[in-house]
Specification:
With 406 residues, this protein is an alpha+beta fold. The chain has a single domain (10-181, 273-392), classed as 3-Layer(bba) Sandwich (FAD/NAD(P)-binding domain), CATH 3.50.50.60. It has 11 helices and 20 strands. The strands form 3 sheets. Strands 5, 6, 12, 13, 14, 15, 16, 17 and 20 form a 9-stranded mixed beta sheet that branches. Strands 1, 2, 8, 9, 10, 11, 18 and 19 form an 8-stranded mixed beta sheet that branches. The protein has a 3-stranded antiparallel beta sheet with strand order 3-7-4. Helix 1 packs parallel to helix 8 (302-322), helix 9 packs across helix 10 and helix 10 packs across helix 11 (380-391). The longest helix is centred in the last third of the chain and has 31 residues, at 330-360. Bound molecules: flavin-adenine dinucleotide. Flavin-adenine dinucleotide is lined by residues 16-22, 39-40, 43, 49, 51-52, 113, 136-137, 165-167, 171, 189, 191, 227, 268, 270, 289-290, 297, 300-304, 306.
Length: 406
């Protein structure tokens, strides 16, 4: 049965889900003067996860007015190093990439997820253009003119456009029969935060092991975050170690490049899996963030894409309004769909390809991976193009993420 419209106002947009993607989308829409309602509970618990925000995401947060407060809690990623530790016959030499080669101070900035979410929550609370509703969404109906979202307390929020930012198990997505494809890898990722003896010099280091990438990403001070992708059994053994034994295991795997390691943060164990959707929209509905794509924690893609979704949706509805069109109508949603399709597909294929060639233990795959890394290291124009594309796609980047003209 279709839900009736609520007695309250009809919002321009209702964003369901107050994770980082939903908060950013709600702030971006409210900032443009759209009457926006954000539905969801605020939750900012420390889980040891950090987010490497690439340059375009930082520009987006700047435009939302939240970067200033976050910057001092983030560390710049000025250099990225890749070390092949796969013990393959075709083992390329270590490769290093500097952000200054493409005219940037940093490829991005690494910050604890809890700090990022807290800062976005403060901005949402301070925004006079945002209406906040914390009961969860339990029901929805999408009509020709308006969409209605039923909340846990029995109230109804009505809007012309609904943004599903309700995470990987999105109810809104499921209710609209959007086909998904999900997959898993025979690996888990151990995450934590470490203090160490030597300076990281703003460099992140990725060791490509036969069981997956082992990555240390700088945090302010002599601290780094760890994402150690390995076999499920090994990850479970590691997570069960006491702090001293885990610190020693990390130092060994990192070939002591940062000296002695001390575990400083909570630990997380993340199953390696992915999800993609066959389309990003349905009538009056747009999917963003993990409701639209789930990545294993390799290559800092997940939330950077989630922010690109939010910024691209903002462009699509701003353009629809400028043309006098319905912001939840087919023209606006069609524009959003087109802007996301290729970007998400390319990133999904790149992350999946890297992980599978590492796991393959297959000489031709090792050869291609090694050759690829040598080509990227040695061929200047290719190297710079890939660095730029890694930070932000050159075609179709959302407007708030583009570099400002010099
Ligand atoms: C170990 C690890 C490291 C990572 N590192 C990086 C990185 O370096 N760079 C990067 O870009 N990404 C990274 N990611 C990915 C990133 O963390 C995720 O992409 C991001 O947190 C997803 O945000 P989201 O807002 O889409 O989803 P979520 O954070 O899952 O938010 C969804 C929200 O919706 C709410 N919700 C659900 N159902 C309802 C409902 N019915 N009503 C109301 N609210 C509802 C939930 O409570 C939640 O608050 C990493 C992930 C992991 C696991």
């Amino acid at each position: 049965m279709a839900l009736p419209a609520g007695p309250g106002p009809i919002f321009d947009a209702a964003v369901v889900g107050a994770g980082a993607a939903g908060l950013a989308a709600a702030l971006a829409l409210a900032r443009e003067g759209f009457e926006t309602c954000l539905v969801g509970r605020f939750d900012a618990r420390a889980d040891g996860r950090t987010i490497a925000l690439l340059d375009g995401s930082v520009r987006f947060l700047e435009a939302l007015g939240v970067w200033e407060g976050l910057r001092e809690r983030a560390a710049p990623l000025a250099t990225m190093r890749i070390i092949d530790d796969s013990r393959s016959l075709f083992r390329p030499p270590p490769a290093g990439f500097r952000a200054t080669e493409i005219g940037l101070e940093a490829f991005g900035w690494n910050v604890e997820n809890v700090e990022l979410v807290r800062t976005l929550i403060e901005a949402a609370r301070a925004s006079s253009q945002l209406t906040l509703r914390d009961p969860g969404a339990v029901d929805s109906s999408f009509l020709q003119e308006v969409a209605n979202i039923g909340l846990e307390d029995g109230s109804i929020v009505s809007a012309r456009l609904v943004v599903a930012a309700d995470g990987r198990n999105s109810r809104l997505r499921e209710a609209r029969d959007i086909t998904t494809r999900s997959w898993s890898y025979p690996q888990s990722a151990l995450t934590t935060i470490l203090a160490h003896e030597r300076d990281h010099r703003d460099a992140s280091t990725e060791f490509h092991t036969r069981f997956g990438p082992f990555t240390l990403v700088p945090l302010p001070g002599r601290r780094s975050s760890l994402v150690w992708v390995t076999s499920r059994a090994h990850a479970e053994r590691l997570v069960g170690l006491d702090d001293d034994a885990l610190g020693a295991a990390v130092e060994r795997q990192a070939q002591s490049i940062l000296g002695k390691m001390r575990v400083e943060g909570p630990r997380g164990l993340v199953a390696m899996s992915g999800l993609s959707v066959e389309r990003y929209t349905a009538e009056r509905l747009a999917l963003i963030g993990e409701a639209a794509h789930v990545f294993p924690p390799i290559g800092a893609q997940g939330l950077n894409l989630g922010f690109r979704d939010a910024a691209a949706l903002r462009d699509a509805v701003v353009d629809a309004r400028a043309e006098g069109a319905d912001i939840g109508g087919p023209a606006a949603l069609g524009r959003y769909q087109r802007s996301r399709d290729l970007d998400v597909r390319l990133r999904t294929a790149a992350v999946d390809g890297l992980n599978r060639t590492l796991l393959a233990a297959f000489l031709p795959a090792d050869f291609l991976r090694g050759l690829g890394l040598i080509a990227i290291s040695e061929i200047g124009p290719l190297r710079r193009t890939l660095m730029r594309e890694g930070v932000l796609p050159s075609i179709g980047a959302p407007r708030l993420m583009r570099p400002r003209p010099a």
